[in-house]
Amino acid sequence: MKLYLDTANIEEIREAVRWGVIDGVTTNPSLAAKESESFNEILPAICDLVDGPVSAEVIAMDYEEILKEARILAKVHDNVVVKIPVMPEGLRAVKTLAGEGIKVNVTLIFSANQALLAMKAGAAYVSPFIGRLDDIGHRGVELVRDIVNLIEWHSLKSEVIAASIRHPEHVPAVALAGSHIATLPFKVLKQMFRHPLTDLGIESFISDWKKAGKEL
Ligand code: G3P
């Protein structure tokens, strides 16, 4: 399973890329709104840092406007994937953009039906929001499993990006549900490294080595 970072913060992306574990980035208008730079500055900077797909979302709700924004975003860099919410005008635009060779990540997916429609329109990626489903008492991970099964049973070409990941346990859960990709907040990526036994192990290795007066 590939790991993307779900952020528009350049410093977080720079650091995660240094760790060598990041395959791409997803952003959304709420994440971009938290940053002081304009999105026009942020998007090319992210594309320079990351060797992989970078999702950038349209704001427009109307077909022609969506196409206009999508084409502008797609021109920024070959790795830009345009993100469009699942809705009729949006899926109409997905079909047109897919025909032009522009990859689209259909976002705000909360049901298998929405995923089916997005994939039918030609979405390269579909993004089920698992944390927000958990918030309302549904099982986000089960939706990921259902969409992956739909892709496999019907030989569809789309990939699943498990999004709205809230805690480290979501990550192996969506991996075991077959998700192709999980997009993580920086905080969750950092939490994935941690285990108290690793900390204790490092501490004792170093103190044993020092006590014995050894050198490398
Ligand atoms: O990738 C989608 C994500 O940014 C939404 O996360 O935590 O706001 O549901 P959250």
Q: Can you walk through the features of this model?
A:
It is a single chain. The chain is of the alpha/beta class and 216 residues long. 52% of the residues lie in helices and 17% in strands. The protein has an 8-stranded parallel barrel, surrounded by 7 helices. Helix 1 (10-18) runs parallel beside helix 3. The chain is globular, with a radius of gyration of 19 Å. The protein starts with a strand and ends in a 5-residue tail after the last helix. The structure holds SN-glycerol-3-phosphate. Residues 6, 26, 28, 31, 129, 131-132, 163-164, 166, 183 line the site of SN-glycerol-3-phosphate. The site of SN-glycerol-3-phosphate has 11 residues, from helix 7.
Protein traits:
11 helices; 216 residues; binds SN-glycerol-3-phosphate; globular; alpha/beta; 8 strands; eight-stranded parallel beta barrel; single chain; 52% helix
What is the strand and helix layout of this fold?
Layout: E1 2-6, H1 10-18, E2 24-26, H2 29-33, H3 39-49, E3 54-57, H4 63-76, E4 80-85, H5 88-99, E5 104-109, H6 112-121, E6 125-128, H7 130-135, H8 140-153, E7 159-162, H9 170-176, E8 181-184, H10 186-193, H11 196-211
Parallel strand pairs: 1-2, 1-8, 2-3, 3-4, 4-5, 5-6, 6-7, 7-8
